[in-house]
Amino acid sequence: MNTPVKITVLGATGMAGSRIVDEALTRGHAVTAVARRHDEQAPARDGLQRVTADVTDPVLPLEAADVVVSALPARVALPLLPELTVRAAGRRLLFVGGAGSLRLPSGERVIDQPGFREEWKPEASAHVELLDALRALPQDVDWTFLSPSALFLPGERTGTFRLGGDDLLADADGTSRISAEDYAVALLDELETPRHRRQRFTVGY
User: Fold this and answer.
1) CA atoms of 45 and 180, how far apart (whole Å)
2) Could you give the angle at the alpha carbon of 69 between the alpha carbons of 107 and 149, nearest 5°?
3) Which of 71, 118, 169, 199 could form a disulfide with 17 if both were Cys (CB 3.0 to 4.6 A apart)?
4) Cα(102)–Cα(88) distance, rounded to whole angstroms?
5) For 58-84, what is each residue's pLDDT tens digit?
6) Would you give the DSSP letter of residue 102?
7) In the predicted structure, residue 188 carries a pLDDT above the cut 70
8) Strands, DSSP E only, in the chain?
């Protein structure tokens, strides 16, 4: 195992955030899990500190972290980005991204396809804006944006998947999918052994 690091996860109780917290704890890291609400019945876990706070709270424990992971909705993370980059200066920033900006074999983006659901577009568009904003940041900001595959749902932790760049990954049947558990594995792999600094990458089966 790599040297344990201190990780603050924003949006720690959501689908992606909760799996990231679990994976990080399994690997022996110290995790500060930030969310507006926590399960009061959840048992204490070694290495875990739960913080109940809004992400705009100025006392959020960011400065004590080695790495900050945003598992927030993009519409929340985007306006928070300027403050986040200042308060977490010198730390790695990892963002749970979206699949909408990934490219298809035609060169078109997923979000621009006729079958892309209208109810998904506000959040998908915010992910596009967030990625653009990250790419425009100064070179000294150490960020990574991990896009899931098109189908991103709770499932099994297999530890077996593929990584890609800006193109949507699909299996032999043409299905693009990744479990939230394996997504967390890919994100923690990147956190421990950086290969995509100041880049977006994707994960899928």
Assistant:
1) 21
2) 30
3) 71
4) 27
5) 767 688 899 999 999 999 999 999 988
6) P
7) yes
8) 6-10, 30-35, 48-52, 67-70, 92-96, 143-147, 151-153, 162-164, 177-179, 199-204
The CA angle 196-200-205, to the nearest 5 degrees, is: 90
d(CA 78, CA 22): 25
Helix, strand, coil in percent for the chain, rounding step 5: 30, 25, 45
What does DSSP assign to residue 159? -
Residues with Cβ within 8 Å of 89's Cβ and at least 6 positions away in sequence, in order, are none
Residues 6 or more apart whose Cβ sits within 8 Å of residue 117: none
Q: How far is CA 81 from CA 2, 60, 62, 144, in A?
A: 28, 14, 13, 13
Q: Which amino acid is at 124?
A: A
Q: How far apart, in whole angstroms, are the C-alpha atoms of residue 155 and residue 38?
A: 22
| Structure-token pair, residue 134 | 């990250």
**Which strand (E) or helix (H) includes residue 116?**
none
Tell me how far apart the alpha carbons of residues 32 and 41 are, in angstroms, rounded to a whole number.
18
Which tokens is 70 given? 């945003």
The reply to whether the predicted model has a pTM over 0.70 is: yes
8 A C-beta contact, residue 190 and residue 146? yes
Query: What is the C-alpha to C-alpha distance for residues 92 and 8, in angstroms, rounded to an integer?
Result: 11
Q: Please give the structure tokens belonging to residue 54.
A: 């809004």
What is the reported pLDDT for 1? 54
